[in-house]
Design a protein that fits this description.
There is one protein chain. This protein is an alpha+beta fold. The protein has two domains: 92 residues, 2-Layer Sandwich (Phosphorylase Kinase, domain 1), CATH 3.30.200; 183 residues, Aminoglycoside 3'-phosphotransferase, Chain: A, domain 2 (Alpha-Beta Complex). 39% of the residues lie in helices and 15% in strands. It has nine helices and ten strands. A five-stranded antiparallel β-sheet has the order 1-2-3-5-4, with helices on both faces. Helix 4 packs antiparallel against helix 5 and helix 4 crosses helix 8. The chain starts with a helix and ends in a 6-residue tail after the last helix.
Length: 286
């Protein structure tokens, strides 16, 4: 907190004196602090996350007017200082709890709201927008970028995962080539980036991986966040064809496997159940 206070006092003295407090549910790629009641300070934790600062500063204000849910507004861009080596940002604070820690009143309604957000994002103007690549950790591109990693994980977890079924799902994702015009994607619609207030989905945060390309990576909440009727409603609204759904399953499987590799015993059973769900969900038209 002392670092944030010093950075603010020197670079943005208009906010000097506002209380700096840690955020309870912090992320991995960034550290976030409340700044007073209406602002937040966001600092990348490593060099590979630093490009997201200017990207979000440039594009969030472009996207926000066409989206059905609030997204953060970047109000200032900070520079390295006091030994901290990366650019950083001040943005609006959006109230709410991460969806995996909040009470959701109606999960099908939640799924529909998320699907409408995804569709609206896909329809945003892409003029001059950043194409998928290293800055998006290759979300928005073909899942084949992570082929070696997936196969290494399957070999490592052969005692935990149905390797034959997982290989079939993964190879189906690789074979389901993208056809169509590139569109905006968020890239990380994880539960922690979906905020709930009053039992409803009220905001989407963390656009650090966003870009323009294949939107299949944004369909992974079908398995990582949703289930049952919610998943069916989500798919119906996003109107994904079988090939896009197959690639989405591949992205969801990749994410689950690398999360399993984090070796968190508390999460292992949850991730194993998620993988089983991914492997048994149908690909073709319902």
């Amino acid at each position: 907190m002392e670092l944030v206070e010093r950075l603010i006092s020197v670079q943005f003295p208009q906010w000097n004196g506002l209380a700096v407090t840690p955020v309870e549910y912090d992320g991995h790629d960034n550290r976030t602090y409340r700044l007073g009641d209406e602002l937040a300070v966001r600092l990348p934790t490593a060099a590979e996350y630093a490009p997201a600062v200017r990207k979000e500063g440039r594009w969030l204000s472009w996207l926000a007017p066409d989206l059905p849910l609030p997204v953060p507004t970047v109000v200032a861009l900070g520079t390295p200082g006091f030994g901290y080596p990366y650019p950083w940002s001040v943005r609006t604070w959006i109230p709410g709890e991460p969806s995996d820690r909040a009470e959701i009143a109606d999960r099908t309604e939640f799924a529909c709201a998320l699907a409408e957000f995804v569709r609206a994002l896909q329809h945003c103007d892409t003029a001059g927008a950043p194409a998928a690549g290293e800055h998006s950790f290759h979300r928005g591109g073909p899942p084949a970028h992570y082929d070696t990693q997936v196969r290494e994980c399957l070999a490592r977890f052969a005692d935990l995962v149905d390797v034959d079924a997982a290989t079939t799902v993964w190879e189906s994702a690789l074979a389901a080539r993208r056809r169509g015009t590139p569109v905006w994607f968020h890239g990380d619609l994880a539960a922690g980036n979906l905020l709930v207030d009053g039992g409803k989905l009220t905001a989407v945060i963390d656009f650090g991986i966003c870009g323009v390309g294949d939107p299949a990576c944004d369909l992974t909440p079908a398995w990582t966040v949703l289930s049952g009727p919610g998943r069916a409603a989500f798919r119906r609204i996003v109107d994904a064809d079988a090939a896009t759904w197959a690639r989405a399953r591949g992205w969801a499987l990749w994410k689950a496997l690398v999360t399993l590799a984090d070796d968190d015993p508390a999460a292992r059973e949850r991730i194993r159940a998620q993988i089983d769900d991914i492997l048994t969900d149908p690909v073709g038209p319902e």
